[in-house]
Amino acid sequence: MIATIAREFKNNERFLVATHVNPDGDAIGSMGALALVLEGMAKQVVAYCQDEVPRFLRFLPYSDRIVREISGPDRFEVAVVLDCGALDRIGSAAEVLQHVRKIIHIDHHSSSGDFGQLNLVRPECSSTAEILYEIFQAIPVSLTPEAAENIYTAILTDTGSFRFANTTARALAIASEMVSHGVVPQKVAGEIYESMSPERIQLLALSLDTLTLRSNGRLAAMRVSRRMLEETGTSFIDTDGFVNYPRAISTAEIAIFFREMDSDQVNVSLRARAGLNVAEFARIHGGGGHHNAAAFRVKGSWSEVVEKVLTAAEEFIAGGLQ
Ligand SMILES: [Mn+2]
Questions:
Q1: How confident is the model over 193-204, as pLDDT tens digits?
Q2: Residues with CB under 5 A from ligand 1 (ion)
């Protein structure tokens, strides 16, 4: 499949590259790397993401060229969908996108469905960028420092700075190679982890105050409401990574982060340690993800949803839903 996709990249001229709503480092990094590599091969590329690039990723080469709207599907020979478990994760452009003649779907989520004409889903890979790296080798192309910085950032962020279970020898080897291609880890780390606004830290303080422990500390949860955002002058993008605080509690087997969205929706991010499969829990609620990182959205009033999900998570921990 790697060789087939490498051939598609060589043999077509007009590409749409797209990734999921609420993009993370792997989404933006994978998209940037692929767009830069394709342009290096003299291809026409449009890179699309419905939501804006989070502030901490705006240093990435190409990230300022990502568009948030696309017109007719006829302009593209191929659509490459990155880091999405399902086509509707693209957001509002999914409708346009499904009419592109050929969809190539590249992802590492275990719950990923086969919605493309070509599907390359590799749950054993740390990140979508890691899979792309293999395709780039198969083409083969030599990576510019700009493409390398995108790949490095994608692996760095999807492995939680080389801390999560997906931090494999292979992930580290590719990261190392990106450094030999010109990436400066200190610079990237500074951009991602040491560029917070005072407002974001104030929001974190409010959110930490909501810390809830259930199931004898095996379940830890935090939340951010719309009111907290208003109070601190922040936006949802500023909550990125907050789930790692309940996750860092020694007794926590499942960490949950609730975000109150517009239009009566609540976004629920889940993290787990070895043993419990939060992708399963997310699937029950109409979402998806990985074994140890998953998410879903629920409609309903803020306080009701929080309580309902916490109760369901307690049952899940107790084995009631397994
Ligand atoms: Mn990813």
A1: 998 899 999 999
A2: 26, 83, 127-128, 158
